[in-house]
Amino acid sequence: MLIQIIAIDAEKQIIHNLEDITGKSLNRNFFQCRFSLLGLTPPDEDFVLFTGKELLKDREGKIFYCEDGDLFLQWKGAAKDVISTFEEMAKRYCKERNYDDLPGNFFQLYDSHAHGEELRIECRKKLKAMGAIEEPARKTTIAKHIPVEKISAKFSPEQLNLLIKNIFDRESRTAPEILIVEDQVFSCKLILSVLSSQYKCHVAKNGREAITLYATHAPDITFLDIELPDTDGHSLAKLFRESDPKSYLVMVTANNHMKDVTLAKQNKVQGFILKPYSKQKILQSIENFKAHK
Amino acid sequence: MTDVIDLTNFREMTDGDVELEKELFEEFFSSSEECITAMESNCVDGENEIWRSNAHAFKGTALNLGADKLGQMCKDAQEGQDMSAAEKTTLLEKIKAEYSAVKVFLEGLH
User: Fold this and answer.
1) How confident is the model over B7-64, as pLDDT tens digits?
2) How many Å apart are CA A38 and CA A91, to the nearest integer?
């Protein structure tokens, strides 16, 4: 049996532990008693030692004090008998101090596998409130603008050969393949959430990747973000259109600039989505493609 | 729906997948804070590509999430890239306040 009592910076210790165990099946549990809700300081060390010895017995465990009064019990193994005995002891401790009715969220069990993330969030909130987590200092110097190397939107001869072969093979596909060219991870995941369960999707976060993936997969439909770090969607649209006359291109932008609409028409794209994305807009584009085909 | 955000559209796309929502919220926090940091470093007089491109990126993410007011503020920031440093600072403070309100709301959901 190992009981370790940590009185200082308990939350930091907990977070350190949690970052090790969150999501891992290490069969570790946390039980929290929110003495902070009652304004009670944590039980004294004798109480905790006694409680720990009675509860943990042969199990490996730790008891954490927090500066705001909360107590965390961590142990390895099955939970139920430990929790009920500890609850009883905590209730008795509170009753002795005239707290008979405990708030509904006074006790909280965290199964490391199921609830590690919740406890991590709870602990980070406490740390922030305590000022133990510092916000990044405001920078007073101007960040040097290091431009991303711009690319020329064109296929290499090898890519062109590959594309020609894949355009030929595309004719025998039974379901459309989709290329999503989007540099913002959030927006990309959102559009994938609508499409990836039904269609094979490829993702490019910049122009260079888009050109490679277009040549490699000859997608049936391409969603093209206009603003990209190394080029722009219009240049890619022009390239794909000229190299693959059967391309089906849908431009996507958060800007409502007429010049983007004009350029899209010049490149003869088949669709235009103004962000925000919606399920309806995305699926309508797919339906339009099927009708077009 | 609240004043800060309308998740109707967003939830239609995530289809009630709570884990996906949590993941996307975390991604929103992470990318937003990167944009804010970059804009803070580039509150300078006149045109600034870092300010503009980060405001644009922040705008797109906010709009896709359903935080329309935040998205509109970012659009103002993007289109006002030739503002003075003082004007940019003022606007950025408003953006940060609105972002904080969005973040508090989202953190309270799960």
Assistant:
1) 999 999 998 889 999 999 999 999 999 999 999 999 999 889 999 999 999 999 999 9
2) 12
φ and ψ at residue A105, rounded to 5 degrees: -100, 25
Cβ-based neighbours of A209, under 8 Å, separated by 6 or more: A181
Which range among A94-108, A199-213, A277-291, B63-77 shows the weakest confidence by mean pLDDT? Answer: A94-108
- Picking from B42, B44, B63, the nearest residue to A275 by CB comes out as B63
* C-alpha to C-alpha distance for A234 and B33, rounded to whole angstroms: 29
Q: Do A184 and B14 touch (CB under 8 A)?
A: no
At A64 the three-state DSSP class reads strand
**Closest to A71 measured CA to CA, from A1, A11, A29, A2:** A11
**List of domains in chain A:** 2-129 (3.30.70), 157-292 (3.40.50.2300)
Selection from A250, A255, A220 nearest residue A236 by Cα = A250
Give the helix ranges, DSSP H, for chain B. Answer: 8-14, 18-40, 49-65, 68-79, 85-107
Phi, psi dihedral angles at A198 (to 5 degrees)? -110, -25
Cis peptide bond prior to A276, omega within 30° of 0: yes
How much is the pLDDT for B109?
84
Q: Is A184 in Cβ contact with B13 (below 8 Å)?
A: no
Does the pTM of the predicted model rise above 0.90? no
Burial (CB count within 10 angstroms: exposed 0-12, middle 13-18, buried 19+), residue A115: middle
Domains, in order of start, for chain B: 8-107 (1.20.120)
Q: How far apart are CA A197 and CA A178, in angstroms?
A: 12
Interface of A with B in 244-273 (CB under 8 A): 254-255
| Cα three-residue angle A12-A113-A7, rounded to 5 degrees | 25
Residues A117, B13: C-beta atoms closer than 8 Å: no
Query: For residue B41, which residues of chain A lie inside 8 Å, CB to CB?
Result: 139, 141-143
